Amino acid sequence: MLQQSPLYAYLPAKDVSRARRFYEQTLGFKPTRETDGGVVYEFAEHTACFLYPTPNAGTSQASQAFWEVKDIEREVAELKVRGVQFEHYDMPGAKTDSDIVTAGGAKAAWFKDSEGNIMAIIQSLGGL
What we know:
The chain is an alpha+beta fold. It has a single domain (2-124), classed as Roll (2,3-Dihydroxybiphenyl 1,2-Dioxygenase, domain 1), CATH 3.10.180.10. Helix content is 16%, strand content 39%. Strands 5, 6, 7, 8, 9 and 10 form a six-stranded mixed beta sheet that branches. The model has no long low-confidence stretch (mean pLDDT 91).
């Protein structure tokens, strides 16, 4: 039953004002609404995330969310112009092309937001 319902991401922020500057000024997101001390951002295909205050932001060592894109090289280039710095991880069997890794049928790039959360950009090479 859950698979028939929309899924939304939570993005933790120690400092919501700082995080909003990152998401809105650096990434160019437009807030949909403010609620419970946080902010909602909506994306394609009726997806969204909720940026919310918590002292636990940045504690996960895994990606918090990812965007599925059609042209990862273009997206990475555009984000670098906006000042985003990409993370580099050693992954067995992965081919690294600058900031983009190719492995498991996809290309991927990772960056951290202002709160230390790991975010990913993914381009499927066959279909996710």
